[in-house]
């Protein structure tokens, strides 16, 4: 795509945000369609962020980390191996060639905020926190599960930048079960469910792709499938009562089918964790 309205390209480290700017990470979405309001691109590579930083307390993923880099992550702490496996599963859920995976970034996928965004699924399932930076230098932290508020909508304010996602060790050491469904073998995710069981047996079920924004079910002890599905129904009924959207219904999957498959995958993931 020829962005013929863009007249300037600048390193993000040396440019003050102004109207008409766009942060440039991998650019796989930015260059895929016309951007008539964009006048200048601010290159995030200038920050030189390490793709991943691993400590005993957390793993910090830079917004500029590519999906290929995340998929190649082999933790120094072997207790994080399950999280690395989940990372690869989520990376492979992205519909795209190896060329896309070598350019598309974790931060870009989350900020695009599509329901099927697998980096949103990954970060939300592991209680990831989005670290945001405003043009005036103000910083704030928002849980990724709350960062995405709808199809293409999120908590970003004008000029705000997602710099990193922090994943806490307590979630990184948990057991996880992953399920994903599409209408075709290489189609966009229509349903994606990740169930997580922590060391204290607390259980978190994260649903994405079939709903406009992440839906999380939390339990202090492993729930039965019936208990989890009852909670899911309550959450979805509350969304409808608030005149909000329920299950997505589009070319990637009809609403009733997505609802049925969501229930099926929740049952499967909880069954896997129970074994």
TrEMBL record:
Name of the molecule in the record: FAD-binding molybdopterin dehydrogenase
GO molecular function, one term: FAD binding
Domain FAD-binding PCMH-type: 1-172
Gene3D superfamilies for the chain: 3.30.465.10
Protein's organism: Trebonia kvetii
Pfam families named in the record: FAD_binding_5
Cross-referenced InterPro entries: Diverse_Substr_Oxidored, FAD-bd_PCMH, FAD-bd_PCMH-like_sf, FAD-bd_PCMH_sub2, Mopterin_DH_FAD-bd
